[in-house]
Design brief:
There is one protein chain. The protein is an alpha/beta fold and about 375 residues long. The protein has two domains: about 5-255, TIM Barrel (Alpha-Beta Barrel); about 310-380, Arc Repressor Mutant, subunit A. About 35% of the residues lie in helices and about 25% in strands. It is built from 16 helices and 16 strands.
Length: about 375
Amino acid sequence: MLIAPKLSLYIHIPWCVEKCPYCDFNSHALKEKIPEQEYVEELIKDLDSDIQQFKLDNRKLHSIFIGGGTPSLFSAAAIERLLSQVLDRFDYDNNIEITLEANPGTVEADKFVGFHQAGISRLSIGVQSFSSDKLIKLGRIHDSKQAEKAAMLAQECGVRSFNLDLMHGLPNQSVENALDDLSTAIALNPAHLSWYQLTIEPNTAFYSKPPKLPLDDTLWSIQDQGFELLAQAGYQQYEISGFAKPGFQCQHNLNYWQFGDYLGIGCGAHGKISDVKNNKIVRTVKVKHPKGYLDKSRPHLDQINQVKTEELPFEYMMNQLRLHSSFTLEQYQCFTGLPATTVLPILQQAQEKGLVVLQNNNWQVSQLGHRYLNDLLTMFL
């Protein structure tokens, strides 16, 4: 029987100073002044439409994540107007996690106190590297000193916690370079680290003109030694690229991976909603381009699709198996509305191959399974 899981809210702010060559997110280089007030108004209209369409008046809000783009280009006053209106529409706990993504440029970093006063409880800072030459190759507009300053300001501004986004496997990066970057990040003492490998995605500048990336053996060495370094520093790996001090896992991302529900408002934002009454799960996509999204003559909703029954096992596992925590078949049934028999034979096959383990009715990906996660996931297609 399908249940209504936790409900989160993702808010997309699409503007950036420049488009990074590795980025395949829906972001647009800033060519003129950001229409802050107009965009906030449209976000709230978008939210109201979703609340009405999906009958969410009685759902409690679990978390909010403001991503982009570069949300820290907005003023603290605009973020406060946005959050006050969002929170007026939901029941929520006083300690609700509200994250805002920020870039380490000096102008944005100076706003951190204002963002905290506006209601932000968690900052996620896109550092990517502390090496100046690597930052230039990645098209970043900040330098290593600004990155370190942003982290220190985040510590001092009053937010409950902050995350540093850090990449490895960068162009011409050695094991020593990657571990130096990671050591610098750890020394800044964030409660959370997102440490992930650079990948070349379609529709990016790097895809058209690929840089020279490290060989697989180097990548494995970076990962293995990096994991050890993080563990020694007290960070627990709870997801493929998520590392946190105890009690500081990103609650918003956890809800994604646990196949929770989330509304997506803003340009190109994606959402997932469980329709318990009709025993179905739907996904939504909003109008992608800012000009179209701000066009008052058209709706914000661009696509709405029901997830096909035969696709649900893969969709659930694609999320859940990213985690380093276990799940039960009962949870699978509640979050998909499907019987356990739709995945049990596959899980048993994966168990025989050593990709998953079963203990006290709890299924969990093994160390081997995490290394060959793509192979494990294809078993559910």
